[in-house]
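User: Hi! I'm a student and our assignment asks us to look at how structure tokens line up with a sequence. Could you show me two examples?

Assistant: Happy to help. In each example below, the sequence comes first and the structure tokens follow. Example one:
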Amino acid sequence: MIDGYQGIMPLDTRNMKPEYIKQAIEQHEKDIKEYALRQSQLKPEHRYENTILRIQKQHELEVMHLNKRANNKRNLQEKKDNFYINSKI
């Protein structure tokens, strides 16, 4: 497995015939260089890292905050439940 780069998927060579692997890797590296060149020519607000990656990071942050809120709510409910159970004994 050869790593991808931002908008380019990783290259999976596991099912390739051995005689094509070297050529595929060279093409993959060439595609990554061309992609990086094209990205550098775009306005910053149109580049992959400022669109897709920014949104992915924002989504991950939102999920983290939602999980934290859910955990806090769950902990609060457990405290209330334990208080209720202990007050009935």
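Example two works the same way, sequence first and then tokens:
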Amino acid sequence: MLLSYIEGLAAMYRDGIYVSKNFVRAYDLYLEERDYYYELNINTMVQGMLKKMGARIKQDGDFGPNSCNALRSIVPGGACGRIPSRADVKALATHLL
């Protein structure tokens, strides 16, 4: 899979490569791209964040019940959708940065 410019930039913010790590900016860039993989990219990023915080989940890009429960154990809120909300990513990022 060849990354687009925006996906590459999002990955830089996600991983802190040449820029300060900023998960919310990465989320915004993935949403801006809206390519075939944007949901997978967002879900994989959030699952990685959750795993760094000790969640025992698969980092597979499918934000199912296990991922949702892990997120909700850290960030209280409503029901999970296909991807976590920007507000959830912002709240989760405060626990990591």
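Here is something you could point out in your write-up. Residues 38-52 form the longest helix (15 residues).
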